[in-house]
Backbone:
């Protein structure tokens, strides 16, 4: 702390500016490891980290050593770096990840046993559906989703449920931008999406088919907290060729209601 | 970067010293949120963070703002702070957490369906069994384990399996320290533990009863990678009062072998 006056001279804007710059550089190094949805996790060389973080190699070398010392990065046998288990240990303690997942998991397992299909649990985070949990059997249809993945709101079952119950300004902002048409069946026209969201609110369930991945369809339902607020969505993803089965939709509703009750939700009409 | 000469003057030991100190202070803030095994995740006030991190309130305020800006901490409505979802998002991308868990999950689900008991997946990390996954039904026996928890090696089924297959120096170091006796039945005498590890290597399974939690017993088996190295352990935790059931042990072995095969392991005798 005795260095502050000199640092202030150096940065020209107070010690905070200098600290922030170190913090920003540290964060840029971890952000270099963020993988897009569907991609596999990876290791990076020091040079690759420096390039992705936009930092000089010497600075990168020094700051990577800081992360390794704390456990945020791990040095592999081949000299490359990967994200470290310390991040995972702290990450699974985040209230949302831990409490919601812990409460929901038995109901997700029931849903998986009943349907034998991929089971997803997702929350709204920014403009994305963030996948908190995914249960899959050995032979389920192949998907790009994974735990920690972010997928669009308008082209996934859980995303549509989350958007249908999002605050008006979130929906307006989302529909104000151009929505990607992943497949011919993807609904992207704002008014058509709005009608769809109204129907989801009315029926309590979202159904979509081949709007994100060829050959896969989804049935999703909202999870509510004690106050009735929709805090998450649960879905199953099935093969589009499978015959429509009313039992599947019922199982998704039962799972969503089970988690909601466990979160303290009681229906107004009860 | 233009500030470096002045920073060097300020810290008296080169710019690296100043950067390292900022990094260490940033890490100390996150470490304030680390919860002991079994504890629930929590939120902390700014004052509590400053106390736990051993930092002045003004520094804490500034660095907490850095973490919030990046997403490593989240400010709750009541003004308290919790770990942020960014940590979870990056954490679930760590190679061990992601690949091992993804590969193992279908087999863990099978094991859960067969036995209806708690299912654990753990790896050796330092002197602890680190719990990567836990599946539990609605009515399983109550336990302190949770995803991300660290539990001792000598008093848990997965821990004994991991210790039985650890390098000799790891076992020696572990047994050189005094082992905690959680319950009257906990085996803590080094030679008794050694005999136990030898038997686990011989039989391919660890059984323990009421050595960590009253009323709960465990059956655990090793998971091997392509090279035959034990990289994880899987277990079920059952009520001690339940009648011993050979089918349960068989189910644990089948699950462990399934994950091992999925990791590329082929038995030498095959």
Residues:
């Amino acid at each position: 702390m005795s260095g502050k006056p000199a640092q202030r001279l150096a940065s020209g804007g107070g010690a905070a500016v200098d600290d922030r710059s170190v913090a920003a550089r540290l964060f840029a190094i971890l952000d270099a490891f963020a993988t897009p949805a569907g991609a596999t996790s990876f290791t990076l060389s020091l040079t690759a980290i420096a390039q992705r973080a936009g930092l000089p190699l010497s600075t990168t070398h020094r700051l990577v050593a800081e992360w390794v010392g704390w456990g945020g990065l791990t040095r592999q046998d081949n000299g490359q770096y990967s994200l470290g288990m310390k991040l995972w240990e702290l990450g699974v303690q985040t209230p949302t990840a831990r409490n919601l997942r812990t409460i929901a998991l038995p109901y997700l397992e029931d849903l998986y046993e009943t349907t034998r299909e991929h089971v997803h649990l997702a929350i709204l985070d920014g403009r994305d559906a963030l996948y908190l949990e995914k249960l899959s059997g050995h032979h389920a249809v192949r998907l790009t989703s994974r735990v920690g993945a972010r997928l669009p709101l308008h082209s996934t079952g859980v995303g549509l449920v989350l958007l249908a119950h999002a605050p008006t300004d979130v929906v307006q902002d989302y529909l104000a931008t151009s929505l990607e048409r992943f497949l011919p069946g993807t609904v992207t026209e704002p008014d058509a999406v709005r009608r769809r969201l109204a129907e989801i609110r009315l029926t309590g369930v979202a159904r979509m088919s081949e709007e994100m991945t060829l050959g896969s369809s989804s049935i999703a339902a909202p999870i509510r907290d004690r106050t009735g607020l929709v805090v998450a969505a649960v879905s199953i993803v099935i093969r589009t060729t499978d015959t429509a089965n009313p039992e599947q939709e019922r199982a998704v509703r039962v799972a969503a209601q089970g988690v909601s009750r466990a979160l303290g939700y009681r229906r107004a009409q009860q």
Summary: Confidence is low (pLDDT under 50) at residues 1-18 of chain B. Chain B has two domains: 4-89, 95-262. The first helix of chain B runs from residue 4 to 11.
